[in-house]
């Protein structure tokens, strides 16, 4: 199986381990990822805030590049990238004026042939839980995990699961032999880039997510967004300084949890890159050995 | 802007409707958007107040609010609205209207961040996170903000020092030059 891949900017830097673990587990399941050649940033939220046309043109150019490379399906790990690519694809296909305008701006036409998938729905629908299970060499051994979706299910163009009580990730964790816990903060906001611009707001939001996870008895959080993971993982020290509560709650990418069941290497999955280390937890559960 | 000088009570509502298809007059002021908004404690106007001010044609208060910039576009308001108003989409439109109207902005730092972010894309085709944060810190004159995270992010391999430039940078610059319309429906 071959599929187009749009990593997005964070996966080259703060979320490198997301990229590493995706490549590793897909290889293990026999899926070959073909990166969109010379892909560009989707514009993220700032383009939407400041310039409507840019917010459309930047994802559009990626769709063009994917189409030129013959990729009829692309998988995006970042919910924002995914939403932009999918939403713009849908808009361009149904609005010929917009399509003309974009052809003028970008200088290239788009035939509307590139389908976007988020990592979660690609794993569930295209790979399938059976194939995932058959790639497993060990299990998560009852690891208590809370799935954190953030705003993924509500973003424009996204139609993955129940908007406020999604279960897609929980099903995958269950298949991996983990214990997905039902909890209150599955889709609460992490504060996104307010973590940079109004840090105290993000600290308040992240703290309430960590608190809810801890209260539920979670041993770790599973995430599928580079910004969510970064806010949850890197801000725990600041939360301790501000609120005096030390959570030490590891936040792993779902793909790292999958890779652990495939017995892939610790560094290969980028687990050594997490700020709150999951080593002690994984040793205690017997998921990894010394 | 023409709606500012108008006597027409529905002018601002009509303008927003024409730009993004969202009809604010459907709002029944139930307050569900504000109750569910994760950032409402820090906002100067509650989301339902923003909608009410649009209904009574007060763009001045709305466009100067911190609310439109603190909105993280998490879309909780949009999915909970009993009238199916896409409130997050309205916030998105209001941000662009505020920039276009050149009014004093309610959260200048958020706008600075967004501008530097876009500039990073213009120069590289992709965002270089480290450069983005450093340039932002300089712009807000807090060069050491979050510096304590630097060493651990570096040792954990989370800082890409050099960043990446895409090959077809010329076309990115052309896209930036040609994307003139800040908001739909503009000439």
Write down the CATH topology of the largest domain in chain B: Fumarate Reductase Iron-sulfur Protein, Chain B, domain 2
Radius of gyration of chain B: 19 Å
- Please bin the fraction of helical residues of chain B: 40-55%
CATH homologous superfamily descriptor of the largest domain in chain B:
Alpha-helical ferredoxin
**Could you say which structural class the secondary elements and strand pairing of chain B correspond to?**
mainly alpha
Number of strands of chain B: 0
The domain tally of chain B reads 2
Described by the principal axes of the CA atoms, the overall outline of chain B is: globular
Q: Mind explaining what this structure looks like?
A:
The complex is a heterodimer of chains A (290) and B (187). Chain A has helices at residues 16-28, 44-50, 52-68, 79-94, 96-106, 119-127, 129-134, 168-175, 194-197, 199-215, 226-234, 236-243, 254-261, 279-284; strands at 2-5, 32-35, 73-76, 115-118, 144-148, 179-180, 220-223, 251-253. By secondary structure, chain A is an alpha/beta fold. Chain A has 2 domains: 2-120, Glutathione S-transferase Yfyf (Class Pi), Chain A, domain 2, CATH 1.20.1050.140; 137-284, Rossmann fold. Chain A is globular. The mean pLDDT of chain A is 97. With 187 residues, chain B is mainly alpha-helical. Chain B is 52% helix and 0% strand. Chain B contains 11 helices and no strands. Chains A and B meet through helix 2, helix 3, helix 5, helix 9 and helix 10 of A and helix 6, helix 7, helix 8, helix 9 and helix 10 of B.
């Amino acid at each position: 199986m071959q599929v187009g891949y749009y990593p997005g900017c964070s996966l080259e830097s703060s979320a490198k381990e997301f990229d590493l673990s995706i490549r590793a587990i897909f290889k293990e399941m026999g899926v070959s990822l073909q990166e969109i050649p010379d892909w560009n940033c989707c514009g993220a939220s700032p383009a939407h805030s400041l310039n409507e046309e840019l917010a459309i043109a930047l994802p559009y150019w990626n769709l063009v590049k994917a189409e030129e490379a013959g990729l009829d399906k692309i998988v995006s790990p970042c919910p924002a990238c995914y939403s932009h690519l999918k939403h713009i694809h849908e808009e361009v296909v149904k609005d010929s004026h917009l399509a003309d305008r974009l052809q003028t701006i970008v200088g290239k036409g788009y035939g509307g042939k590139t389908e976007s998938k988020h990592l979660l729905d690609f794993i569930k629908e295209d790979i399938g839980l059976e194939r995932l299970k058959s790639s497993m060499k060990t299990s998560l051994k009852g690891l208590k995990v809370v799935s954190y979706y953030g705003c993924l299910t509500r973003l424009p163009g996204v139609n993955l699961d129940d908007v406020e009580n999604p279960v897609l990730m929980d099903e995958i964790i269950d298949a991996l032999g983990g214990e997905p816990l039902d909890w209150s903060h599955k889709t609460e906001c992490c504060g996104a880039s307010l973590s940079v611009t109004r840090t105290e707001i993000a600290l308040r939001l992240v703290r309430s997510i960590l608190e809810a996870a801890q209260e539920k008895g979670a041993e770790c959080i599973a995430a599928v967004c580079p910004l969510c993971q970064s806010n949850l993982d890197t801000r725990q020290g600041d939360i301790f300084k501000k609120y005096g509560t030390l959570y030490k709650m590891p936040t792993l990418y779902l793909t790292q949890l999958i890779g652990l069941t495939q017995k892939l290497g610790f560094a290969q999955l980028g687990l050594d890159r997490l700020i709150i280390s999951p080593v002690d937890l994984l040793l205690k559960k017997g998921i990894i050995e010394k | 802007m023409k709606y500012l000088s108008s006597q027409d009570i529905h002018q601002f509502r009509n303008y927003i409707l024409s730009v993004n298809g969202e009809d604010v007059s459907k709002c029944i002021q139930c307050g569900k958007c504000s109750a569910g908004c994760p950032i409402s404690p820090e906002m100067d106007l509650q989301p339902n107040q923003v909608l009410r001010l649009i209904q009574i044609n007060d763009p001045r208060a709305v466009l100067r609010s911190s609310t439109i910039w603190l909105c993280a576009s998490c879309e909780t308001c949009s999915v909970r609205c009993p009238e199916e108003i896409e409130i997050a989409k309205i916030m998105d439109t209001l941000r662009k209207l505020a920039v276009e109207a050149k009014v004093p902005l309610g959260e200048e730092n958020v706008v600075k961040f967004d501008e530097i972010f876009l500039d990073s894309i213009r120069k590289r085709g992709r965002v270089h996170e480290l450069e983005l944060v450093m340039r932002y810190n300089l712009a807000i004159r807090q060069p050491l903000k979050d510096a304590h995270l630097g060493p651990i992010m570096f040792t954990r391999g989370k800082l890409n020092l050099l960043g990446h430039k895409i090959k077809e940078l010329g076309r990115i610059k052309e896209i930036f030059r040609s994307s003139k319309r800040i908001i739909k429906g503009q000439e």
